[in-house]
């Protein structure tokens, strides 16, 4: 099935791109610049597209992102440290981000003759992000089938939506994902901070999967205390 992958350049979406390339017909990667402070992630998406030999479309959503105020990813608000599932991480929500990106991706898929749009939302996202939950993805796919009725038949593929990030690491490793060429940290520094929710989740996922983590973190040991604190809360 000809499949477009929405790829941020992060561990999840780059793994999905590699899995799609080996199990389906990967047609293209689509990335979005919405003014995120960790814009460097798009460089890793571009690398993935080149490595997999497919076109890479970067869609400029900066004016849209500027209007979606109140998120630590787009505003001058500090990205909090700690476990991903803590209440404090809700400040990283960009309202309706996935719905907007998926709408654009479906349009591109329909225009290019692709049969599916793949996105790497996963079970660990459900607590914080409502547009990563199964109820949303299923309803969105139904809505898009109505929107494109009679023009194109495009379906949504979310293989991780009921699975964990550790599962993604396991599957990504099995399909040759170069994890050191992915970017997760929301702070967008020279290296992964090791303290923000995505860094803690990333490090924990490798540990749970029993896969060596090649990532260099500014604070490589913080994740243990964050995980322990979350487990005790």
TrEMBL record:
InterPro entries: QueC (IPR018317), Rossmann-like_a/b/a_fold (IPR014729)
Cofactor: binding details: Binds 1 zinc ion per subunit.
Pathway entry: Purine metabolism; 7-cyano-7-deazaguanine biosynthesis
A biological process term (GO) from this entry: tRNA queuosine(34) biosynthetic process
Sample GO molecular function, one term: ligase activity, forming carbon-nitrogen bonds
Listed SUPFAM superfamilies: Adenine nucleotide alpha hydrolases-like
Cofactor: Zn(2+)
Keyword Repeat: no
Record's keyword terms, sorted: ATP-binding, Ligase, Metal-binding, Nucleotide-binding, Queuosine biosynthesis, Zinc
Annotated ATP binding sites: 7-17
The protein's enzyme class: ligase
Record function comment: Catalyzes the ATP-dependent conversion of 7-carboxy-7-deazaguanine (CDG) to 7-cyano-7-deazaguanine (preQ(0)).
Family note: Belongs to the QueC family.
Protein name: 7-cyano-7-deazaguanine synthase
Organism annotation: Sagittula marina
